[in-house]
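Forwarding the complex inputs:
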Amino acid sequence: MASTAAGGTAPSTPAKQQGDPENSRRGSLPSGHELLERALALREGSIIVVTLVTALYFGLNTGSFFSTGNFKTLLPYFAPFAIMGAGVVFVMILGEIDLSIGATYLFAPFLYYKLAHAGFPLVPSVIVALLACMVVGFINGFFTAVVGISSFVATLGMLFTLEGLTLIISHGQPVATPGAEVTSTTVKVPHVVNGVHIELTETVNHVSTFAKVFGAGTYSELIWAIVIVIVLQILLTFTRWGLYTVAVGSNKLGAAEAGVAVKLVMIRNFMMCSVLGGFVGILEAVRASSVQPDTAGANEILFEAISAAVIGGTLMAGGSGTVVGAFIGALFLGILHDGLILKGVNADYLLFYLGLAIILAMTINVYVQRARRGISRG
Amino acid sequence: MADQAPLPAEKVVGPVSAPDDVLRVEHIAKRFGPVTALRDLNLHLRKGEVLGLLGDNGSGKSTLMKIICGFQKQDSGNMFLHGEPYEPKSVDDARTKGIDTVYQDLALIDELSVYHNLALRRESVHRPIPLLANREMKRRAREALDEIGINIPRIDVAVARLSGGQRQAIAVARTVNSNADILLLDEPLAAMGAKEGAMILDLVARLKAEGRVSIIMILHNYVHVLEACDRVSMIQDGVIALDKPTGETSVEELTEIVVNEYRRARIEAHLPASGA
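Prediction (whole assembly, two chains):
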């Protein structure tokens, strides 16, 4: 569904726009080369191919890559970045960047902890923490769109401020995530051994429904990711919000002259990006049932989320990108992580390969963009 | 070489008006830091009229257009629309009051399709969920382009792929099709070949014949001005230096004013601040 929204039948989509631009040879069948060109001209075309090849490689070279168990292992490597990547895409299409999402990711669960610890009910605590993230995004957007600081600098300042604030309110100590406590009960399970009925005690772990919904359920993060990606891809492709986002990113002055409220468009995208960062922070805190005030780890999260968007075809220069692309970019990163671990590669090599993969993907993107724009140059 | 002293042009120093004015601009001034774009500008536009606005590069023509269309705000001075005080808060606000603009830079979004550009800020959406009604916008785009008689083979391609003239035509179509009753056209022929330019001038003539809209048009080619406009105003040094019906002026007169301006500028440059 989401990929249809991105590039299939929708009238405004790149697929249709790019299909044989000169349109003069309608009768003849497209050659193999043309088909390849068209597939590559799809914004997500290159990364889909790269992701499939990567998955196939690990499938053939490791015993357990295509197993249900491994799929479950894979999920936390990509679902959080798919969600954060969706927000990053909306900021990057504007031609801006949000370096503070890692800090927001770290800050939100600690604020949630403070609120829940003070006696607030769980769900309202989540909501208030996300509203605080919205304020963070507003400040990012305000300093970028209204004051006129570059978003790189404004959100860099926010990164340090927010990470500092997190250290202050957490006193540098890890906390157990409220609502994510694992309770164990002992149950007696009947067994039949050699015709004799006996009861053996077994330990069963429970988490609350709240925890299952907000990250601790096996598929919780995946479901959130899919829902958020579908909704935001529709927002990007089929609403004014998305149209104005592309307009501002492609030609800020022209959009303003045409009457688009440029500052509003920018601020609300920054707000959405921060909320998603904070939301993922809470999901991960609930999933892990505790949260560390680890600023270095938070910044790694930031770079992975941006990598997902960039690998998924979003241009740093703005004007172009898709949420589905970021989802696939996150999936690619997840498969790479998971597959390399399955193959027994150590963590040092992991980052090394990740770096190479990002450079490779960006190189492919540059050529794809040339193909998209320049085929008709004649 | 005639050793002729530069003639002082007949400047419009006070507010001007006619009984059937749709727009009046009085004592408008605008500075950008140390640069004075408009000093004390007075201008009026009559109903159904096509006013040609001339002036050297940097004389303030585009600034005036941007003030009238609500994109920038004047430092001082007043505007009146249909006799009422007119203070546009934004481009949207000006548009709801019936003023729409073709900008010099066209204000097109390269990444968006032709029909999305034509519909920008006037999008059709479905109800109750406000998703974009792309089919409806395509139909409207087709109509708008047919109406101005410009052939754009495909309206679902990104405007980045179109020629300069086609882009210009799309910007003009967007504005003409907006139901505005005052159109501001900032160099609508800039990127066009002779054939496309003639189409736009025909369109202006057709709009004039219909009598529904009034137009202020910035042009550089005096022949075009005399052909398409009812009246011509020339901006020099941030004020109107000439304001005449096109029937009472000529290419020669317009050229002479500009030549004199250059001559004066040169004299001033060579004899700095010599006093009396």
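Chain B touches chain A at residues 71, 90-92, 95, 101, 103, 105-113, 116, 120-121, 123, 125, 130-132, 134-135, 138, 153-154, 156-158, 160-161 (CB under 8 Å).
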